[in-house]
Amino acid sequence: MSVPLRSLTLSLPDETATDALARQFAPLVTGAHGHPPGGRIHLQGELGAGKTAFTRALLRECGITGRIKSPSYALLESYKVFNLYFYHFDFYRFSDSREWLDAGFRDLLRDDAVVLIEWPERAEGVLPPPDMQISLVYADPGREVTLTAFTARGQTWLNAIVPPPQVPSPPAAPSADA
């Protein structure tokens, strides 16, 4: 993979925070506010870390209606809103990094489409670099997300993300000795 330009780590204490982050990405990938539409996002994290939850929230915010299925078995789910294509890949079942090439997916990695890839490490070395890598890890409570820009487009997206306000910890109770 290419060299990261910049990263930002945020706390996502619950699904509402994940949805809020996806809402911030929607205008960035759809071309609203003068951003060119499209882009490549790689999603990394353990099973259940929130990759598909983030993707569903993003697709909903971009205008996808109806059922949004996980592509775990089909490998690819595609959508279209107006003239913008969305391709949601899941490479979890790949055992060889060249399998996605054999499946004929290379032609779908267009700059003018939104390409979301779960488990991109299963095709490491043969995928082009993402604009943004989203890494999710379990944190108590919720998740921690690290957003890493790998391209100028990703850097623009990262600059537009507004971190959620952090909820202050409640003050410690006075000790019995006081």
Keywords, separated by commas or semicolons:
178 residues, alpha/beta, seven-stranded mixed beta sheet, 4 helices, 25% strand, globular
Report what the structure shows:
The protein is of the alpha/beta class and 178 residues long. 22% of the residues lie in helices and 25% in strands. The protein contains four helices and seven strands. The chain has helices at residues 15-30, 51-61, 99-102, 152-160, and strands at 6-12, 39-44, 76-81, 84-90, 114-118, 132-138, 143-149. Strands 1-7-6-2-5-4-3 form a seven-stranded mixed sheet, covered by helices on one side. A hairpin with a 4-residue loop joins β6 and β7. α1 packs across α2. The radius of gyration is 18 Å and the shape is globular. 30% of the residues are buried.
Q: In angstroms, what is the radius of gyration? A: 18 Å
Q: Name the average pLDDT.
A: 81
Query: Helicity level, as a percent range?
Result: 10-25%
The number of helical segments is 4
What is the number of E strands? Answer: 7
Indicate the proportion of strand residues.
Answer: 25-35%
* Largest sheet report: 7 strands, mixed
